[in-house]
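The aim of this short unit is practical: by the end, you should be able to scan a pair of folded records and say something sensible about each. We start with the first protein, listed as its amino acid sequence and then its structure tokens.
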Amino acid sequence: MAERSRNPLELGEPTVPAPPPSAGVPSAGLDLSPAPAAGGQSAVAARHPGPATLESRLYPAPAFGELHQLAEGAAVVRLNPRQSGIGSLFVTGARGTAWEGEDRTTGAQSVHREQIGTPIPTPGNRPLVGFVNRDAVVVLRHVRRLRRALFIGAGGTMTVQTFDGSAIAVQGTLGPGQRTVLTATRIGALLELRAESVPEDWDDGEIWREFAFTMTVGLGGLRR
């Protein structure tokens, strides 16, 4: 049977069969899902990170163990999470310490064991901050019970040491007629240490007031 001739007035295109797939090209469709970003996160997660933590918003500071000494031009160091939460923080060369707990109660103790205010208890019935022999000690296992502490220099150099052997010296004075006070502030899970100056002839009460420590005397007592 002869092939029917195409009507010249028919505008439709003749059906053309699809070419066979090329060799080496998979017949499946393209995968249009986003490629994972570095660290296993998707590109969407990389563009929209989760809420920043308190620690991630801190300004840069030298790590504890990098500096050999806190002085006027380099007065701040920051402990890492392990240094801030394991073992104890030992401060040698202080004549007294004061503390403020997470519940805003405050207390203080001298190197001679004179104490005023409210101790911060721990499950082991050991105070969170206090003197052991002549060292001021912070029990870091329970550091989240602490808001801040200060250590009043006795006049000479203070030293601070953590469980891993890292240590730093703190100058006894940062200027003529000045006494050094070392502050320890908890920021999230980290401790930050800062060397501060007060007049050399100030007594402990004047130093407490300067750093806004109001002793909660009604909840504690003077112990000798």
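Turning to the second protein, read its sequence before its tokens, just as you did above.
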Amino acid sequence: MRIELALKLLGPHAGMDAQDSLQTLTTMLALLRELEATETARPGAEGTRWTFNELRLGSVTCVLEPLRIAEHSTYDVVERVARNVVGGLYEAESTARIPTGWTLKAAGLGRRVAKSLGASPDVGMILEVRGDGAALRTAEITQRAALHLDEATRTRHRTFGSRRGRLSGLQEGGRQRRLRGVLRTEVGGEVIPVYFGDDLDPELRRAWRRDRVEITGEITENAQGQSMWMRARDIELLPTSPQLTDDELRGGFWPDMTSGQDAVEYVEALRGDN
């Protein structure tokens, strides 16, 4: 399938300020690269290169398509990334949350894309993912998305807790040159940057690329309770498959929870004589 990403900046401001228009397009390409790095768990690698197959003025209109797929990526990944760009900005248009599957960095780039837009659709932006020329997903984006992403990326709470998921994307980063990974959580679908101290190096080597780990540490959250990043204090390796058998799990039955009763007996016991 031939994948394209169409972008149209609406309103008189779109064709008047060349620097703003070019900055919006440049940031959009950076957002595509960040989401691809998250998808492929290769944050340090060069991403897929994109090219224009259409570019018009008036309102600024362009259509992007892949020029060269990155070696660590695939056509399917590029399609998911394009859908994620449109879906994430659409999500940001309606709620002050970090979009599903986006990192904190991606949310910051999305805010920059939307911040020069107007407050209504006629001075906003239209995004569309196309497959073989047919529209797969379309979204109208306004300044509201930037305001929501700005709110979603503000630090509000620091707690101590744990998250379970799969760890990937290890690299060295930050001013203190800490090791940084990305945890994809089992619950909530969060993509959380995690920073590790040198004292966790042996545990980190054992946990690397495992299907399931539990990381405990200091969690920085936004006002909506989304995890923005973590500083790890402990890493625990978890079983890669459920410990309960299919028979034990059928019909929602978990013996430890119901003290050995089946679902009907358990509900009757909760109701009592009534």
